[in-house]
Amino acid sequence: MERFSSVSMAVVRRLPKYHRYLEELIKNDIRRVSSQELSKITGFTASQIRQDLNCFGGFGQQGYGYNVDELHDEIGKILGLNKLYNTVIIGAGNLGQAIANYSFFDKSGFKMTAIFDVNPKLVGMKINDIPVVDVDELEQFINEHNIEIIVICTPKSQAQKVADIATRTNIKAIWNFAPTDLKVREDIIVENVHLSESLFTISYLLKEKEEQYRKKK
Amino acid sequence: MERFSSVSMAVVRRLPKYHRYLEELIKNDIRRVSSQELSKITGFTASQIRQDLNCFGGFGQQGYGYNVDELHDEIGKILGLNKLYNTVIIGAGNLGQAIANYSFFDKSGFKMTAIFDVNPKLVGMKINDIPVVDVDELEQFINEHNIEIIVICTPKSQAQKVADIATRTNIKAIWNFAPTDLKVREDIIVENVHLSESLFTISYLLKEKEEQYRKKK
DNA sequence: CAATCTTTGTGATTTAATTAACATATATTC
DNA sequence: GAATATATGTTAATTAAATCACAAAGATTG
Questions:
Q1: pLDDT above 70 covers what percent of chain A?
Q2: How far apart are CA A199 and CA A179, in angstroms?
Q3: B171: nearest CA partner in chain A
Q4: pLDDT digits (tens, 9 = 90+) for A16-74
Q5: Does the pTM of the predicted model rise above 0.85?
Q6: Is the Cβ atom of B36 within 7 Å of strand D at any atom?
Q7: Does residue A85 sit at the B interface (CB-CB below 8 Å)?
Q8: I need a surface site. Which of A14, A43, A147, A177 has the fewest CB within 10 A?
Q9: How close A148 gets to chain B, by Cα (Å)?
Q10: Contact at 8 Å (CB) between B134 and B124?
């Protein structure tokens, strides 16, 4: 991925984790946390946590640590979670429905505005109060509703077609669950969730472990 | 994650990508490929590809390149895709069903043996020919059917409970889709798919890009 | 079949990421 | 309120990852 900022993706991908762990702390009424305590919870080293946070400014206080609420807020802002993103899901299969039903995304500012599908039986229905719309109307809908993010939950065979349609509009990012790499304009952010790659990694580790075990014997 | 082998996770996580791209080449009847050509397709540098592959031995031939079929096979073996893993899905919600319906996993050697759920209306049904079983029978089922991998698709609130049950058995790996970090025995491989982290990364990049844009003006 | 071209495998180098170390600021204690 | 303990922010050191560069092997060509 082409980057502009000086903050590395390695750091960026840890931010949501910090955010989540801080949320847990808030739930448990913990108001204050040190990098060392965070280290125990998150598994990252205290040093790394401090260095990560300092990419964005000093949120802590020497001798005290970090105020949990404040840090949670700040990281939220850094992640852009204080903003609203008009979002649509494309593909009302199980995966699309799973995402539609997971209200957490909506609460986090990703406004799920519509779900698109080819199946006329689904069109007109609502899933978690989100209308299912005919995919033929996708382009128009994106333009009219100022959609910034599209979530591709179609089969592999349809993913590029959908991406092509969306690319003609002003969308800014694609969250892609189809097991393929999309070709799109340079300026569109693409985040892939390739489930099989994740599963294959398990497979590798299992095999490796078994080999290690055999060696020991 | 605790590692044993000398091959870094960075390399391991690229292997499934190579595997997938090679599959594409096979579909297009391409028999031979150089690291340079692979570089164009995958976006990794040719040098990195050669170095990655050499972690596992020399699969290429100087002056020729790599035999696509052979390399695809070899990477498949490295990933352990020539083996069969008895697998169960826990949670027959949309996400669990999505995974159950995605036959690709089954074809890749992850035998989806059962789906567990608490909902008595679902128990007894079949999803993509996989029986839905009462979650109360989980432990016994795992033991009797030699299950090695469990896929957690439950809500967050149930995930640790399920993990605790599974941890009493001989399972070897957990593929976790619940938005939480599981506490399990050291020897169990846990691969998390934290969707919100992926989405939040998009959010960060969007925000960052907008800031870049404003600066230019 | 000799000459040339291609492309791997690999050691050296560079760049990036992580960890360690510590000075400084603040909190806490007695 | 002085003394001590704590914990950040930050620079330096270390480790890990990616890239470069090239010799050697083998393919291709005329």
A1: 97
A2: 13
A3: A206
A4: 999 999 999 999 999 999 999 999 999 999 999 999 999 998 899 999 999 999 999 99
A5: yes
A6: no
A7: yes
A8: A43
A9: 9
A10: no
